[in-house]
């Protein structure tokens, strides 16, 4: 790796306060302005000049910092002169290939391309599994300058000789870490072998590890390394809370209470298993919480319908597996992990759905005692800025049941206090005495209820 170039470009103090400082095309600038972007982010300030100057790039920064625009804007700038009104496919050869690990991310990037290329004559298309193969073949043969694809479906089209990469100039590996984690390394190598040798390669990843470094050394030529802060970091705009709870019922009731007593506009509730996604979605629906679910078992059409409905505020809680952890460019108020991820990278991506673009967000995660290793890793990269609470796993959930049943209003709700690994749910309600008189038998003159089942 060219350390001199890496140092000169990634550590530069030159800051462009406006996108016009990059010397971009007028139409591209108009599209950027229309989307409401005014000041380049740190990753954009470092990546755009490097890509415009023709260097291979390996870059990483916190999720939600504008990585997609950091490679799309300079690439579109470098091919915008190829815009033409011709209907001939020969006049619209593939110049850019963007490879992503998931359908959702591929769709999101393609949507961004359409916005950045508005009022130009550049064509783009996206291909992934779950969609009719022959229809994609027709689109490919009609010609496009920018192709976004997932590995498996792209390999299918390459084997069917549906794609011509002879004119390719740019190859982007986005979310490369996830691509390797999902077992696509063999596909990635096959795809690279099908591409021209002379091309500009750009590798973007939210996290960095040995596998990414190995991939970079094998396929990138003297790349510029752009590293902002630590590779594995969490945005300080995210308030993190971890509840240690062994009981599934306790987790579900706590989630229900939190959802009913916060004003979060949009929430993503992650679960590791499809079966838990089904169960949680039904649990919330039965409790009159507006929700829907997303996982790989859904057809592509249904997945798109669910994502669009979530974007358009048709429901408030998306219950999902990790298919929703990357590529959803939706402003989310809170991320809840019904169970913690097995890796730190996946945790970073999950909670990275909130606290984006400088807007504060919140993450709430449930763990077992045995998850001590990942909890310690989270604390380490968060510089101990994580609130850890212990929930009793005893059967007495009377406090949550009563709160939900009687809908206590005008209160400070519940304050969860960590007291020797127990949670005290203290009801601070101005109307408490009235409720107590009316429900004396049920409340038994309690002023507060301890999760362990003892009265104060």
UniProtKB/TrEMBL annotation:
- Give start-end ranges for motif Q motif: 17-45
Q: Which residue intervals define the domain DEAD-box RNA helicase Q in the entry?
A: 17-45
The record's section on SUPFAM superfamilies has: P-loop containing nucleoside triphosphate hydrolases
Listed InterPro entries: DEAD/DEAH_box_helicase_dom, DEAD/DEAH_RhlB, DEAD_box_RNA_helicase, Helicase_ATP-bd, Helicase_C-like, P-loop_NTPase, RNA-helicase_DEAD-box_CS, RNA_helicase_DEAD_Q_motif
What's the superkingdom here?
Answer: Bacteria
A single GO molecular function term of this UniProt record: ATP binding
GO CC annotation, single:
cytosol
- Give the Helicase C-terminal domain ranges: 237-403
Query: Top-level EC class, please?
Result: hydrolase
Which ranges carry the Helicase ATP-binding domain? Answer: 48-226
Q: What is its EC number?
A: 3.6.4.13
Question: What CDD domains has UniProt attached to this entry?
Answer: DEADc, SF2_C_DEAD
For this protein, the record's Pfam families field holds:
DEAD, Helicase_C
Keyword list (alphabetical) reads: ATP-binding, Helicase, Hydrolase, Nucleotide-binding
Similarity-based family: Belongs to the DEAD box helicase family.
PANTHER family named in the record: ATP-DEPENDENT RNA HELICASE RHLE (PTHR47959:SF13), ATP-DEPENDENT RNA HELICASE RHLE-RELATED (PTHR47959)
What's the protein name?
ATP-dependent RNA helicase RhlE
What's the name of its gene? rhlE_1
